[in-house]
User: Fold this.
Amino acid sequence: MAWSLGWKRWGFLQAVTSGSFFSSPWGHCPWRARGSFLDPEMRAFLEENTKVTSSGSLTPEIHLRLLTPKCKFWWERADLWPYGDPYWAIYWPGGQALSRYLLDNPDVVWGKSVLDLGSGCGATAIAAQMSGASRILANDIDPVAGMAITLNCELNHLSPFPILTKNILNLEQDQWDLVVLGDMLYDEALADSLHGWLKKCVHTFGTQVLIGDPGRSPCSGHSIWHELHKVAEYSLPEATRQQNNGLTTSAVWNFQP
Ligand SMILES: C[S@@+](CC[C@H](N)C(=O)[O-])C[C@H]1O[C@@H](n2cnc3c(N)ncnc32)[C@H](O)[C@@H]1O
Assistant:
């Protein structure tokens, strides 16, 4: 059957459903991420190969273009996909919890400068904008995520905020009132870099750091967890549970080094 050879073979999604999160057989292939996020060809490709959805997540008020079982590439051979692994095409449980928290607690973001690091589909940056942040930067190393965030801003009738598709973990730090990260603790080396970078943010600028994460392996033993304090926990909707190997909850954590 077509589906047994299709989308479910994609490393990242297979890894989620099997519990071995993010063990892509492609690894990280920067050369696959061609084009810029202003590229009209990329825009047309994303519009054709994603579906607008607002149901099945913790934030039905945010509309997003995502890969769903109604999309050709959900079932198609992974090597026919012309870009890098589309992490941006999933609305991850950590991002869902974080976005819900920002929407329900606008005082946390109102009038503040907010960096959404590892923005993916851009939902958390969008939630920050909806809750009145004064300045937003959505950052993701994947240029295709940049295009997805642009499309998702338009979809929600928001004025576009800046999007940066560079690895800022190696750059000099800017001052932010709030840094938010959804589902970024999935890789030991990345968790190490983030841990050091976030500590510096807090100690240098007094930045508040909120992390959305369901607390699953493989990084659940990472030292950053000793400095995370739970501020909210949400029961995940059925559709998200099904896509995430039966995971039932996701939480928001305050980073206090
Ligand atoms: C699991 S996805 C989470 C996306 C989104 N925050 C959410 O919760 O739906 C992780 C995202 O982090 C991005 N990423 C990985 N390393 C990064 C880095 N060093 N800087 C910025 N983004 C990064 C990936 O491209 C991917 O879009």
User: Anything to note?
Assistant: Confidence is low (pLDDT under 50) at residues 1-9, 14-35. The domain at 93-255 is CATH 3.40.50.150 (Rossmann fold). Residues 87-88, 91-92, 94-95, 117-121, 123-124, 139-142, 145, 167, 169, 182-184, 186, 190 surround S-adenosylmethionine (CB under 6 Å). The longest helix spans residues 188-205.
